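User: Sequence recovery, please. Input:
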């Protein structure tokens, strides 16, 4: 694969580095807020390499370069990034530090942007390079920005008030809780950098990041419950100012670094997982006493109140009707031929928009036909767009942002008659999904302790999937929200050791991917809820499934299901019909009744 555009861009970056006296540079997918999804202005790795995923990094040296991605993107990166320009490096098997350590020499200087990396990453890489006699150098201005002629400007979209009737708690109450947290620890101030934490704490929403309703801002919250917010003033209307009140002082976003210098002598809480290295450096220079604490908004944001949960449940019912209409349409249209991934994704969005209330998608729809379904985080575009053909599986992972909730759902359907292998793998994924959905567990259980429930049936056949089983989800906020996560404990994945609390929303999404052939994933969102068990000697929790849409019954091998599993699927489908049928037109309701009919458990069906 030859990529003239990226050959030229890589050459321009190398020339820029040479002019600055640098021998290398690290290019992460990140912004000044350590966001998972970043605005167009911060898509530096995509501009340099062509990689379209949401996680990864690149490193550039005078004669070599590399891209670093995890197991979700090992296939995708080879289709998007020129292997003659960049080495493909899989993490966590290897790392940026290991690759640089093997490729830099004594005296060389490798640059990094301190506004795009965490402090622990910086210190770890400094140590690794020092062992080679090389140096890690913070740059004052990002060399990628200098080479990127048509780099978009940061969004100037205004922020808006998020009504307390939807939030369930006022911004004043939230600031009081954080102030009490500070006072209990003898702290003066906490630095808040995560965009979703700021949106949640101040009950505002924005349009600065695609699919995530946040505004670009920093905040300092103080023990007296006042706050300083750093945001482009033109983004703040009179209504937002009135909502924030006199206790929240508004400053230009560019004044944030200078404000850190004013915290000399104060005890300041900083979250090393969410605050970039430049913030630590500024506070150290100012003489502030830095104390490492997790962002105090993270856990209360994750534990939804009843207003947030009720809103999210309502959003899922509306969203489920759109997904059901789409599945009906796919069943009718796809076998005729002529449909492709982009067309299917556009139709699904249209169904969501027709429902009313859609603010945005919650992420770029994964509309994946045949072998593209084997890429867990595939993103369709004009160059990858594939026809949806008979005899294949089609995987669609999608979601919507509504004022009352955020949705995320994956369904896999057969176009035509599925093979025995497809049905076996689908049923194993379904069995894992059911095992997690029906789990009961003591309070204090971590996500890492539940992950095996979803993988056990695949493991029995010697297969697995290279992504987590569940992620947290926000309430009209980020579709991927911490701190909770259900995944393998290996690799130090953040969130897997976080205790699950009642009120948390997570995804339940086991999968299977046969490279070059097909992918399968079944995803519903669940809420952690208390369990009342007669005779229980411990406080127990479980999951309430809040996503409602048919699961493809023609892909289920009923002979592989236990009676309890079959009962669960029948009960789930009965609930789907009960929730979605009201308000549907007659034809869609009739289709839904068939899609949600009980499984055929006759001897002939079991033998098929």
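Assistant: Recovered sequence (608 residues):
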């Amino acid at each position: 694969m030859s990529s003239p555009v990226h050959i030229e861009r890589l050459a321009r970056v190398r020339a820029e580095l040479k002019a600055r006296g640098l021998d290398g540079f690290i290019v992460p997918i990140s912004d000044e807020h350590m966001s998972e999804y970043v605005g167009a202005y911060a898509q530096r790795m995509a501009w340099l390499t062509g990689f379209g995923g949401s996680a990864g990094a690149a490193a550039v040296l005078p004669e070599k370069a590399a891209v670093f991605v995890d197991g979700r993107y090992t296939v995708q990166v080879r289709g998007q990034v020129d292997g003659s320009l960049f080495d493909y490096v899989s993490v966590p098997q290897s790392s940026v530090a290991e690759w640089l350590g093997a490729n830099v020499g004594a005296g060389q200087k490798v640059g990094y942007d301190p506004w795009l990396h965490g402090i622990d990453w910086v210190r770890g890489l400094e140590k690794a390079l020092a062992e080679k006699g090389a140096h890690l150098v913070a740059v004052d201005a990002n060399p990628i920005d200098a080479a990127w002629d048509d780099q978009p400007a940061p969004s100037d979209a205004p922020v808006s008030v998020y009504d307390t009737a939807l939030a369930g708690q006022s911004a004043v109450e939230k600031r009081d809780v954080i102030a009490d947290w500070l006072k209990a620890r003898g702290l003066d101030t906490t630095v808040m950098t995560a965009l979703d934490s700021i949106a949640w704490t101040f009950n505002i929403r924005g349009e600065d990041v695609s699919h995530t309703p946040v505004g670009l801002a920093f905040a300092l919250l103080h023990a007296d419950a006042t706050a300083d917010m750093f945001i482009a003033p033109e983004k703040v209307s009179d209504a937002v100012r009135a909502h924030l009140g006199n206790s929240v002082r508004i400053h230009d976003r560019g004044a944030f670094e200078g404000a850190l210098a004013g915290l000399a002598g104060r005890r300041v809480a900083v979250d090393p997982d969410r605050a970039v290295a430049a913030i630590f450096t500024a506070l150290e220079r100012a003489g502030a006493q830095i104390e490492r604490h997790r962002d105090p908004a993270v856990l209360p944001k994750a534990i939804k109140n009843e207003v947030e949960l009720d809103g999210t449940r309502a959003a899922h019912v509306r969203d489920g009707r759109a997904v059901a209409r789409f599945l009906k349409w796919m069943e009718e249209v796809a076998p005729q031929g002529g449909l492709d991934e982009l067309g299917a994704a556009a139709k699904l969005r249209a169904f969501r928009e027709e429902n009313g209330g859609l603010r945005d998608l919650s992420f770029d729809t994964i509309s994946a036909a045949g072998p593209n379904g084997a890429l867990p985080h595939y993103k369709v575009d004009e160059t990858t767009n594939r026809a949806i053909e008979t005899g294949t599986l089609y995987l669609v992972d999608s979601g919507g942002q509504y004022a009352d909730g955020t949705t995320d759902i994956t369904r896999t359907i057969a176009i035509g008659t599925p093979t025995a292998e497809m049905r076996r793998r689908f049923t194993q994924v379904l069995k894992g999904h059911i095992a997690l959905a029906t789990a009961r567990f003591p309070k204090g259980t971590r996500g890492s302790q539940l992950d095996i429930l979803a993988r056990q049936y695949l493991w029995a056949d010697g297969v697995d999937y290279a992504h987590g089983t569940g992620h947290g989800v926000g309430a009209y906020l980020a579709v991927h929200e911490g701190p909770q996560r259900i995944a393998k404990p290996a690799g130090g994945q953040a969130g897997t050791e976080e205790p699950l609390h009642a009120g948390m929303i997570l995804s339940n999404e086991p999968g299977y991917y046969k490279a070059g052939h097909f992918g399968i994933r079944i995803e519903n969102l669940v809420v952690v809820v208390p369990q009342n068990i007669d005779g229980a000697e411990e406080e127990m929790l479980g999951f309430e499934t809040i996503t409602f849409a048919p699961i493809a019954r023609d892909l289920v091998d009923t002979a592989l299901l236990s009676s309890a599993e079959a009962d669960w699927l029948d009960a789930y489908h009965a609930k789907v019909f009960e929730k979605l049928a009201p308000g549907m037109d007659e034809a869609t309701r009739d289709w839904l009744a068939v899609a949600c009919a009980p499984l055929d458990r006759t001897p002939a069906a079991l033998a098929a």
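The longest strand covers residues 524-531.
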